[in-house]
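Lab notebook, design round three. We kept the backbone fixed and only want residue identities now. Task for the bench partner: fill in a sequence for the structure below.
Input structure tokens:
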């Protein structure tokens, strides 16, 4: 394998694009996931990935093979994402845009309104393909959840980079210092602050990703939401349930606030059909508004976070994300 990698590197250095594609192919998906964790946006992650691969192609002559190809690519990707977080103007928040529905007063206005979901179809084979190093503290599946990714977005960029490289990917401190052109002491200090900041942001509830309990809760949610059954929906929620809807900044914290939000949507007579999918290793549903005609139009995507006590978070994204999940913009009315 090592001999083949060296051969590919030599061929790529000579200008062989096919050899370069073969060299980086095993790492494309995991690099995309890494960029998504850093940026919180599926579209921005794709842009950062393309920028990473272009930079790697252009800088291949400077790759001295003191590290693996994978580590070299992570170094480039991390620094491209750092540049993006420092310089990019994030997407603007949007005003309430649900026709015929007056929004209830939000608990607060969220900061991470550029958040986008990541399709599970693109995670297949990624979370287990490259086991994290011995320094990792988080399961790969946990580190792709919306709650985890959202919490990262409010940390300083360099702290995010250090935490992901150390606690998610499991690189040693000295390796991270070299990747970020800094000292081991600086990495250790940034990691300590990042861990503290992340714990302040994250929920203490244990997720039930992939469990039969998760599937059952998601199915009950879909049935109740389609029927506009508020009482059943209420029974599925945890006391501290959190509802958000990026790129609109409206956020609702707690059962009462979320009930008010759901009632404002469903009490208008709007009825939906939900099509199951998965995002961020969590249950998700494409939402289609039933009308009087022959077509139901897509209005958004719900992503649920479940715990052993119920649904602890609901995130609603706009309908522009539906094609990422192989879902159509509209479906025949049923």
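Proposed sequence:
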């Amino acid at each position: 394998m090592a001999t083949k990698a060296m051969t590919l590197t030599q061929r790529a250095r000579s200008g062989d694009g096919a050899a370069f594609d073969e060299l980086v192919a095993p790492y494309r998906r995991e690099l995309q996931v890494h960029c998504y964790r850093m940026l919180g946006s599926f579209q921005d992650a794709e842009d950062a990935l393309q920028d990473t691969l272009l930079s790697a192609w252009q800088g291949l002559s400077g790759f001295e093979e003191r590290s693996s190809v994978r580590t070299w690519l992570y170094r480039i990707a991390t620094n491209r994402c750092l540049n993006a977080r420092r310089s990019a103007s994030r997407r603007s928040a949007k005003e309430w845009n649900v026709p015929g529905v007056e929004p209830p007063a939000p608990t607060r206005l969220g900061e991470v309104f550029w958040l986008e979901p990541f399709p599970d179809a693109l995670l297949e084979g990624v979370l287990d393909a490259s086991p994290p190093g011995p320094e990792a503290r988080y399961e790969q599946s946990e580190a792709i959840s919306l709650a985890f990714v959202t919490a990262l977005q409010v940390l300083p960029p360099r702290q995010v980079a250090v935490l992901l490289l150390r606690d998610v990917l499991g690189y040693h401190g000295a390796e991270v210092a070299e990747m970020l052109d800094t000292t081991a002491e600086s990495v250790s200090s940034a990691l300590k602050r990042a861990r503290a900041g992340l714990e302040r942001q994250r929920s203490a509830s244990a997720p039930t990703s992939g469990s039969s309990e998760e599937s059952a809760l998601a199915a009950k949610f879909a049935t109740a939401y389609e029927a506009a059954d508020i009482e059943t929906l209420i029974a599925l929620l945890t006391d501290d349930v959190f509802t958000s809807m990026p790129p609109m900044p409206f956020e609702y914290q707690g059962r009462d606030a979320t009930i008010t939000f759901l009632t404002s949507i469903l009490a208008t007579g709007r009825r939906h059909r939900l099509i199951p999918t998965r995002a961020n290793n969590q249950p998700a549903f494409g939402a289609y508004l039933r009308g009087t005609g022959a077509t139901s139009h897509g209005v958004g995507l719900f992503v649920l976070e479940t715990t052993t006590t119920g649904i602890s978070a609901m995130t609603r994204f706009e309908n522009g994300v539906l094609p990422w999940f192989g879902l159509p913009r509209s479906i025949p009315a049923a």
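Keep this in mind before ordering anything: The chain has two domains: 2-201, 212-332.
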